[in-house]
Specification:
Elements lengths: L2 H11 L3 E2 L24 H4 L9 E9 L15 E10 L4 H15 L7 E6 L9 H9 L7 E4 L4 E3 L4 E12 L16 E14 L5 E14 H8 L12 H11 L7 H19 L10 H19 L8 H13 L4 H37 L5 E2 L1 H11 L3 H10 L3 E2 L1 H23 L8 H20 L6 E6 L4 E6 L6 H16 L4 E7 H6 L13 E7 L3 E4 L14 E10 L2 E8 L1
Parallel strand pairs: 1-2, 4-5, 10-11
Antiparallel strand pairs: 2-3, 3-9, 4-7, 6-7, 7-8, 8-9, 12-13, 13-18, 14-15, 15-16, 17-18
Helix pairs in contact: 3-4, 6-7, 6-9, 7-8, 7-9, 7-10, 8-10, 9-10, 10-11, 11-13, 14-15
Amino acid sequence: MNLKDLYIKYFEKLGHTVIPSAPVVPVDDNSVLFNTAGMQPLVPYLLGKEHPSGTRLCDYQKCIRLTDLDEIGDTTHHTFFEMLGNWSLGDYFKEESILYSFNFLTKVLNIPIERLGVTIFSGNDFIPRDDVSYNKWLSLGISKDRIRETCDDNFWIAGETGPCGPDTEIFYFRSDDEIPKSYDLDDPRWVEIWNNVFMEYVKHGDGTYTTLSKKNVDTGMGVERVTAIVEGVNDNYMSSIWKDVIDLICDISHLPYKGNEKSMRIVADHIRTSVFISCDDAGIVPSNTDRGYILRRLIRRSIRHAKKLGIDINSDFDIRIAKLIVSKYEDYYDEIKRNKEVCYDVLTKEKIKFNRTLEKGLKEFDKVVNNLSDNIINKDLAFKLYDTYGFPIELTIELANEKGIEVDVLGFKEKFRHHQEISKIGSSEKFKGGLASSGDMETKYHTATHLLNAALKLVIGSDCHQKGSNINSERLRFDFSCDHKLSDEEKNKVCDIVNSWINDDLKVSVCEMTKEEAIKSGAEHMFIDRYPDVVTVYKIGDVSSEICMGPHVSSTKVLGNFKIVKEEASSSGVRRIKAVLE
């Protein structure tokens, strides 16, 4: 039995209900491009909404994180990973949570206690030290030398205000060296394996804290890292999760793993993540924006590293690897089995496009070389080859060496670092998530998208369906199926209908029902397989009924005036509206 199955079985026996994994593309949450943690789909319930499956939950969640993209290629980092989680929504709290985690690690996985160390919240000017967690760990046999206290690293809050609280983190000594008596925070041999967050406070805008009446527990443990630990390997890619994938890449490239680890890990990781993105029911395809850009970047990066391994990139190497990955996950995730052919098509088409780009890049390289005046490719030319034509600096150096030309590698790296810093500033806004974006304006725009959806059906036709949305405090963006550009008359008619409903002060009501009942009632929905068996349906008067997780206003009058500011193509057969509330 693998780690996922052991975990679910264990927490089921402790009264937890197994909930399905949310998709990698979030539903009703536009604060992030991808789900980055197991708690993210549960945000409304951590904020106090009652979960239809009860107060004790567990799951394995598909996650994608790109903040560590530059770390991919080492032994522990992955862009896609699975997170095991268990939650208490106003049920048990610190002592039980710590006991459950400790028993799973030491009694189910048989991890020796001498390899464990923990951290707790040390306290600050507003919130006291977490004595409960400290004493619980002592009672379970964790010595004082193995308990360390921090302030910032052991306190969780998503954003500047909102629900928050201390956490306790569990570390494993991942090394063949002699196990030290004490746990050292700065010793990289100690690897975090589990984090238990105790949400017991609310931070307010004035910097003060109050205690939550309903306290929650949110835990998370990475499948890849813990599997490697249980199997006794110090390289995640040598665990059962990855070993057969790496072996296949070795077979395709006719190279050993040793000495080629970084590129092989990148190829394996990026193709796996590409499989999960392209198999998601959201229908993400490679593009130059948002999620499509991430998918394109991952596929192209895997191709570049395949080329470094001497793999014929015109072969079906990527499909062979993808098929193996699909076989490992399709029994756990229905969308992998359902959309695998879509995935293979996406990989093939993007590879063909990139190969053409490489050809253009080779022509550009020759042009650059012919126009050189000082026998050196400067940093700007090297970066142009990288940024515009996808040339890794290693390829530029290799081609330059063949012609006896130097490359300003240090200058390129400096320019590349600057590019990364700018990208990180932008992506930090894209990838912050969870509880960070649920203010009054976002709530109003969320309700307005329901009215817009209903109005479009009246103007364009009942076969017009939502294909995606993005909301912030300044505007809404709404993608919908449509085979033509909207005329001014159609746009004006949509606005008139939405504003008439706003002026009618329609009441917004909410109710819970089974998924089958919701569908039978005619409730609008996207990707119905993503929702649990019991769903929330929001109704706006008698004009709109949608399966949704909220939040919404209580009546339409507060929305103000609805105005379409732009209508454009999003992709083939899909149009996009940007609108504001004035």
